[in-house]
Amino acid sequence: MTEASISRTGRASRRAGRALALVVCAVLALPLVSCASTPSAADPKATNSSVEVTPGLVYSSPEGGDLKLDACIPTDAAEPTAAVVLLHGGGFTEGDRTGGGMRAVCELFAAHGFAGFSIDYRLAPEFVYPSQVDDVEAAITWIREPEQAERFGIDPARIGLFGSSAGAILTQTVATLGTGSLQEGRRVAAAVSLSGVSLMTEEALALGTPSDEAAAMILNYLGCPTVVAADCPQAADASALLSVDSSDPPMILVNGSDELVPVEQAESMAAALKAANVPVQLSVQDGSKHGIQLLGPRIRARVLEFFTERLS
């Protein structure tokens, strides 16, 4: 992968990212103000009277500066709610907690009784794996603190993850890390991945036909020149597929049949989870839709039902 081709890939990704907000607005039937594609365009006030949005809360201050999240909280909850942490896409080189429709999805969860937390994480190439994983785990730990649990009216034992594209990779990775209780520490009780890459080693090249854009995204994330094992030993550690065990949380994996991420990635991850006796739902959507674009009415209903069941 040359620098020029990665640059072209980045420009195409930025154009696609700006278009995602409009797609999600149409899919979720939410006002355009909720789907702003940049922080400056985002309205910090919720568009739904049953949802209160508190933007720009600092949850961690690692190397590189403060990391922020937006909290979308249901205002009519009579008892502590479950929480869902949202992880945006952007190929690990761009994107933020409000862009690409993430604000709309955050409000969607809150409107259905979940506390939504859409987070920023550090970006490549300045920061590479495992920085992003560390950031997600820091957010989960922050949300679980007694002060935050009381502030937002959540049950810290009921936290799930929802990720799109690059955020789906992080979702799968964090969900499969560690062992033990899914109700404490950095663990989560349920996970939803939209177009997530599960395997990043050389063997991944045999899973379908990975595109140059997908390869560039993974190389940027890993900080590697190639996926050859000798050049990228961290690829195995970053691959959720290789971390699956029976202690992992239930998952939904959604992928397009002909999109940026080869469908074989999702199929292989589903097979690994099933082999470990972890409940998993695999949904393959016809066509080239990717990430948040896959969140149509049927998948949206399934995701909400899944989190209702698994975070009860």
Automatic annotation (TrEMBL):
A GO molecular-function descriptor: hydrolase activity
Similarity remark: Belongs to the 'GDXG' lipolytic enzyme family.
Top-level taxonomic group: Bacteria
InterPro entries: AB_hydrolase_fold, BD-FAE-like_dom, GDXG_lipolytic_enzyme, Lipase_GDXG_HIS_AS
Keyword Ribonucleoprotein assigned: no
The protein's name: Alpha/beta hydrolase
PANTHER family the record matches: AB HYDROLASE SUPERFAMILY PROTEIN C4A8.06C (PTHR48081), ALPHA_BETA HYDROLASE (PTHR48081:SF13)
UniProt signal peptide: 1-41
Keywords: Hydrolase, Signal
Domain BD-FAE-like, residue spans: 69-273
UniProt xrefs under Pfam families: BD-FAE
